[in-house]
Design brief:
single chain, alpha/beta, Cobalt-precorrin-4 Transmethylase, domain 1, six-stranded mixed sheet, 6 helices, 6 strands, about 20% strand, globular
Protein backbone atom coordinates (compact mmCIF):
# COMPACT_ATOMS: atom_id res chain seq x y z
CA UNK A 1 0.00 0.00 0.00
CA UNK A 2 1.39 3.40 -1.01
CA UNK A 3 1.91 5.89 1.79
CA UNK A 4 -0.26 9.03 1.54
CA UNK A 5 1.69 12.15 0.62
CA UNK A 6 1.74 15.10 3.01
CA UNK A 7 2.95 18.60 2.24
CA UNK A 8 5.80 20.00 4.30
CA UNK A 9 5.86 23.78 4.11
CA UNK A 10 8.75 26.11 4.86
CA UNK A 11 8.52 29.82 5.62
CA UNK A 12 10.71 32.69 6.75
CA UNK A 13 9.42 35.59 8.79
CA UNK A 14 11.85 38.19 7.44
CA UNK A 15 9.96 41.40 6.62
CA UNK A 16 6.69 40.15 8.10
CA UNK A 17 4.58 40.87 11.13
CA UNK A 18 3.22 38.00 13.22
CA UNK A 19 -0.20 38.70 11.70
CA UNK A 20 1.16 38.45 8.14
CA UNK A 21 2.87 35.19 9.00
CA UNK A 22 -0.37 33.87 10.50
CA UNK A 23 -2.33 34.82 7.37
CA UNK A 24 0.04 32.88 5.09
CA UNK A 25 0.10 29.86 7.40
CA UNK A 26 -3.71 29.85 7.71
CA UNK A 27 -4.20 30.21 3.96
CA UNK A 28 -2.24 26.97 3.46
CA UNK A 29 -3.86 25.00 6.27
CA UNK A 30 -0.78 24.93 8.49
CA UNK A 31 -1.65 23.72 11.99
CA UNK A 32 1.88 23.14 13.32
CA UNK A 33 5.02 25.27 13.13
CA UNK A 34 8.39 23.62 13.67
CA UNK A 35 10.79 26.39 14.63
CA UNK A 36 14.19 25.28 13.33
CA UNK A 37 16.22 28.25 14.55
CA UNK A 38 19.22 27.25 16.65
CA UNK A 39 18.63 30.34 18.81
CA UNK A 40 14.87 31.06 18.74
CA UNK A 41 15.34 34.71 19.62
CA UNK A 42 14.53 37.73 17.49
CA UNK A 43 14.89 41.48 17.56
CA UNK A 44 11.61 41.60 15.67
CA UNK A 45 8.71 41.93 18.13
CA UNK A 46 6.62 38.78 18.35
CA UNK A 47 9.15 36.35 16.89
CA UNK A 48 11.10 35.18 19.92
CA UNK A 49 10.20 31.66 21.03
CA UNK A 50 7.77 32.41 23.88
CA UNK A 51 5.95 35.29 22.17
CA UNK A 52 5.65 33.38 18.90
CA UNK A 53 4.49 30.19 20.60
CA UNK A 54 1.85 32.08 22.55
CA UNK A 55 0.64 33.97 19.47
CA UNK A 56 0.42 30.88 17.25
CA UNK A 57 -1.21 28.76 19.95
CA UNK A 58 -3.85 31.44 20.53
CA UNK A 59 -4.74 31.05 16.84
CA UNK A 60 -4.90 27.25 16.86
CA UNK A 61 -1.42 26.56 15.51
CA UNK A 62 0.87 24.31 17.53
CA UNK A 63 4.43 25.55 18.07
CA UNK A 64 7.23 23.00 18.38
CA UNK A 65 10.87 23.98 18.80
CA UNK A 66 13.69 22.05 17.15
CA UNK A 67 16.75 24.16 18.03
CA UNK A 68 19.05 21.15 17.50
CA UNK A 69 18.15 21.33 13.80
CA UNK A 70 19.22 24.95 13.49
CA UNK A 71 22.49 25.92 11.91
CA UNK A 72 25.33 25.50 14.44
CA UNK A 73 27.18 28.78 15.16
CA UNK A 74 30.45 27.69 13.52
CA UNK A 75 28.67 26.87 10.24
CA UNK A 76 26.52 30.01 10.38
CA UNK A 77 29.51 32.26 11.13
CA UNK A 78 31.52 30.76 8.26
CA UNK A 79 28.61 31.44 5.89
CA UNK A 80 28.35 35.05 7.11
CA UNK A 81 32.07 35.49 6.35
CA UNK A 82 32.22 33.91 2.91
CA UNK A 83 28.62 33.71 1.61
CA UNK A 84 29.39 30.24 0.25
CA UNK A 85 26.02 28.48 0.40
CA UNK A 86 27.45 25.31 -1.18
CA UNK A 87 29.83 25.02 1.77
CA UNK A 88 27.03 25.76 4.25
CA UNK A 89 24.99 23.02 2.58
CA UNK A 90 27.83 20.48 2.79
CA UNK A 91 28.66 21.33 6.41
CA UNK A 92 25.02 21.45 7.51
CA UNK A 93 24.27 18.10 5.85
CA UNK A 94 27.24 16.59 7.72
CA UNK A 95 25.87 18.06 10.96
CA UNK A 96 22.39 16.68 10.24
CA UNK A 97 24.02 13.25 9.96
CA UNK A 98 24.52 13.48 13.74
CA UNK A 99 20.90 14.44 14.48
CA UNK A 100 19.03 11.21 13.67
CA UNK A 101 16.55 11.24 16.57
CA UNK A 102 15.60 14.89 15.99
CA UNK A 103 15.17 14.33 12.26
CA UNK A 104 13.04 11.25 12.89
CA UNK A 105 10.85 13.16 15.37
CA UNK A 106 10.35 16.06 12.96
CA UNK A 107 9.70 13.72 10.02
CA UNK A 108 6.99 11.98 12.09
CA UNK A 109 5.31 15.32 12.89
CA UNK A 110 5.52 16.43 9.28
CA UNK A 111 4.05 13.15 8.00
CA UNK A 112 0.70 14.12 9.54
CA UNK A 113 0.51 17.15 7.23
CA UNK A 114 -0.07 20.81 7.96
CA UNK A 115 3.49 21.38 9.23
CA UNK A 116 5.73 24.34 8.35
CA UNK A 117 9.43 24.72 9.08
CA UNK A 118 10.10 28.25 10.31
CA UNK A 119 13.26 30.32 10.23
CA UNK A 120 14.14 33.97 9.63
CA UNK A 121 15.28 34.22 5.99
CA UNK A 122 12.47 34.97 3.55
CA UNK A 123 14.27 33.28 0.63
CA UNK A 124 14.50 29.53 1.23
CA UNK A 125 17.38 29.20 -1.24
CA UNK A 126 19.51 31.12 1.28
CA UNK A 127 18.32 29.25 4.36
CA UNK A 128 19.15 25.96 6.04
CA UNK A 129 15.43 25.12 6.29
CA UNK A 130 15.37 24.25 2.58
CA UNK A 131 18.19 21.76 3.11
CA UNK A 132 16.43 20.30 6.14
CA UNK A 133 13.19 20.02 4.16
CA UNK A 134 15.01 18.06 1.44
CA UNK A 135 16.46 15.69 4.04
CA UNK A 136 13.04 15.15 5.60
CA UNK A 137 11.39 14.56 2.23
CA UNK A 138 14.06 12.19 0.96
CA UNK A 139 14.19 9.94 4.02
CA UNK A 140 13.36 6.24 3.87
CA UNK A 141 9.62 5.75 3.38
CA UNK A 142 8.98 9.50 3.31
CA UNK A 143 6.03 10.68 1.26
CA UNK A 144 6.55 14.37 1.97
CA UNK A 145 6.18 16.98 -0.74
CA UNK A 146 7.92 20.31 -0.01
CA UNK A 147 6.42 23.75 -0.66
CA UNK A 148 8.22 26.97 0.21
CA UNK A 149 5.80 29.72 1.22
CA UNK A 150 6.18 33.45 1.11
CA UNK A 151 8.17 34.20 -2.04
CA UNK A 152 5.89 36.82 -3.46
CA UNK A 153 3.42 35.11 -1.16
CA UNK A 154 3.12 32.29 -3.67
CA UNK A 155 3.96 28.71 -2.79
CA UNK A 156 7.06 27.42 -4.56
CA UNK A 157 7.14 23.69 -4.93
CA UNK A 158 10.09 21.39 -4.90
CA UNK A 159 13.84 21.50 -4.93
CA UNK A 160 15.44 24.93 -5.07
CA UNK A 161 18.89 23.53 -5.73
CA UNK A 162 18.31 21.66 -8.96
Amino acid sequence: MKKKSATLYTIGYEGRTPEELLAILSEHGVNRVADVRQMPLSRKPGFSKSALAEFLTSHGIEYVGFPQLGTPPAIRNQYKKNGDFARLRRDYLAYLGTQGPEIAALRELAAHGGCALLCFERDPSKCHRSILAEVLASGPGSALRVEHLGLGDEAVEGDLFG
